[in-house]
Amino acid sequence: QTALSETTGLLFFTTALYTVPPVFQMLAVAPAVVARVSKEYLSGMYQVHTFVVAMTLSSTITAVIWAPVWQMITYTLADLGRDPVALLGMQLTLALNVLTMRILGFFLAMVVPGAALNVVIANLFVQMCMLTNRFYTKLPSWLQWITVMSIPRFTLRALLKIEYSWRDMFEVSPMHGSYIPAELTGTFQVTRERQMNVMESPNDAPPAGEMLAMAAISLGFLLLFALELTYQVWRLVVGYSQQEGLFDKCLPYVSVAEPDPGEEARAQAAMSQDSEVSYRGRTRAQSRANAGSLGALSDQSHEMFFPYE
């Protein structure tokens, strides 16, 4: 049972590792995303929904790839994953967790653009999710509704369902060699008390429900994110159109002074006179320099041919 507690703690740490950082990463990059989409939309490159689909597909590859790397290293050392199918199920669960938290971070950044405020709200939300995933405390009945939005709770419960079954037996005392079913261990008794429902014999508990719940939350908030991003871009377009309309209204009242032909002639004459004067000055200076050079050359020649004079 000691090994069971340690592996459960590792699964909890994995859940926390891929729950907290994605939210704050999206809060940091969201302003740049909005600025880029607005600029490229105004230039007519693409529509907003096209960007949302492309960003989701690209981030699915770049952001989710680190979860399998983590699992292959740590789960191999901890001897987790009873078979390749279970390991793939764990990787899919973590991938859904990462995508869901990233989309939630994007949506929060759209609704609350202020960096000082959205970081506080994100911290409160993430901590609430971590506190309600059964690892710390038991929630009262009137607070159970929070677990509906607790993404780490879905993730941890799915990981436990994939790794353990009610058919598993755990050694109670190595000295006596006695075993008890998994449901009777202290770890899974706590999960039952905290309404996690990881296992219940004689029925298997597949993790499909938790995966579908995270997928539904991801799609729902992705749609809300696309709508909010479209609204913000529309506001920028409206503001730009209003500025253009105001400029067009003010343009007829702006008078442009026509140039005076006499003034232009005088300016050209002054410029030509200045050019002529400067040219004469440069010519005289060049003549003096040439004369000085010739004088110095004649003196050197005289000294060369008449050194004792």
Automatic annotation (TrEMBL):
Q: Where is the ABC-2 type transporter transmembrane domain?
A: 7-164
Q: Which keywords does this chain's UniProt record carry?
A: Membrane, Transmembrane, Transmembrane helix, Transport
Compartments where found: Membrane
Q: Has UniProt tagged this entry with the keyword Transport?
A: yes
Q: Where are the transmembrane segments?
A: 12-34, 46-67, 115-136, 211-234
InterPro entries from the xrefs? ABC2_TM, ABCG_transporters
Q: Name one GO cellular component term.
A: membrane
Membrane topology type, per the record?
Multi-pass membrane protein
| Any single Pfam family the record assigns to this protein | ABC2_membrane
Map out region (Disordered) in residue numbers: 262-294
MF term (GO), any: ABC-type transporter activity
State the name under which the record lists this protein. Answer: ABC-2 type transporter transmembrane domain-containing protein
Tell me which species this is from. Alexandrium monilatum
According to the entry, what is the taxonomic lineage of the organism?
Eukaryota, Sar, Alveolata, Dinophyceae, Gonyaulacales
